[in-house]
Amino acid sequence: MTFRFDKLGVVIAAIVAYAAFLAPFATFRANRIVPGQARSIFEALPSALGALLLAVVIVGGIIALLRTPLMLRLAASVVALAALAIVIGTAGGFLTPAGDTFARVAPASGFWLLIFAFTLLLADVLTRLDLAPWGRVGVLAVAAVAVGALLFSGSWDTLSILKEYSSRSDSFWAEGSKHITLALGSLAAAVVVGLPLGILCHRVEPLRAGVMNVLNIIQTIPSIALFGLLIAPLGWVAAHVPGAAAAGIRGIGTAPAFVALFLYSLLPVVANTVVGLAGVPRAANDAARGMGMTDRQRLLDVEFPLAFPVILTGIRIVLVQNIGLATIAALIGGGGFGVFVFQGVGQTAMDLVLLGAVPTVALAFAAAIILDAVIEMTSTKRRADSE
């Protein structure tokens, strides 16, 4: 019998083998800041459960390695991910001494590598299945429900990141609200300003080069530097403009973070608006003129609908970018999940860093999938309308 290997499967199988046999599965610490002690799968779990998990990941790695049917690969990735998500909670309870509230158990590199390997396998299968946009959103919703169920079940409560959350639950949701407000608010402001500016740049060609050059320069300024540059002018505004301080405008805090994110957001919105409008077929415009449409009617009824998928791509870039950049706002008192990231760095508490980093990554990932689906649906509708 001749076995045929899948190219991506070779990489996945190698990661699985290293993570299962060589890398630590969990880390135990006597408290939140002391160095951790690595534990393998068999050291972190009861022997029977450890053997079962090892069998699951080995079988999953073999299925990924060989050119197996897509549905079998799908089942292997889902089962492996579910098993890993369940047993890591068991590891927390198994390694934590009874009654010890200071001990911390965290997933180690082996766990994260296994998650990465089987997520990569799942993503490859879903790509080959070529799911419809709503199908991809449905997969995201199922994954979110599964993670939510594990969180509410309490099976992860013994893990260090959940212990950090339990002592900061109120501030977590407050900072999360600030994070989302910063990301979405700056995006909304950029759309309100960027769309008309992009239309103007498309219509007035001499203006385009100057505007795009300015926006490109802003984009090259490091985020921390831009936050710092805004402190002085906004501080002056707060001190000298009546009502500015009462409206929340000051040198540090939400205002400079909002302005910086807004400035970073302009380039993708303006550039994609120009590119989208430039890509409208000349025949469509000629037909609209022949029907007696005014410039405004052509823009709203012909050009903008045809350019919308490209414009939406710019909005997607901005949203994902802003969700990540909003983390830096904590350095100037803007709040957000970055508060936990920088507190954790200052206290050498990596679990606190993860408390801020994990939801940021999850939000950006979910936003990318949802907007990708919306872009594909609008592109499909555009092609259908043009036919």
Our estimate of the beta-strand percent is under 5%
From the spread of the alpha carbons, the general shape counts as: flat
Please write the string of helix (H) and strand (E) elements: HEEHHHEHHHHHHHHHHH
Mean pLDDT: 86
- Give me the side-by-side strand order of the main sheet: 2-1-3
Fraction of helical residues: over 70%
Report the count of strand segments: 3
- Poorly predicted residue ranges: none
Note down, in words, how this protein is organized.
- This protein is an all-alpha fold.
- It is 76% helix and 3% strand.
- The chain has 15 helices and 3 strands.
- It has helices at 7-21, 41-44, 47-65, 70-95, 109-129, 133-153, 160-166, 169-203, 205-220, 223-240, 254-278, 282-290, 295-325, 338-347, 350-386, and strands spanning 26-29, 37-39, 104-107.
- The chain is flat.
- The mean pLDDT is 86.
Give a short summary of the structure:
The chain is mainly α.
Descriptive tags:
about 375 residues, three-stranded antiparallel β-sheet, flat, mainly alpha, 15 helices
SSE blueprint:
Elements: H1 7-21, E1 26-29, E2 37-39, H2 41-44, H3 47-65, H4 70-95, E3 104-107, H5 109-129, H6 133-153, H7 160-166, H8 169-203, H9 205-220, H10 223-240, H11 254-278, H12 282-290, H13 295-325, H14 338-347, H15 350-386
Antiparallel strand pairs: 1-2, 1-3
Helix pairs in contact: 1-3, 1-5, 3-4, 4-5, 6-15, 7-15, 8-9, 8-11, 8-13, 9-11, 10-11, 11-13, 12-13, 13-15, 14-15
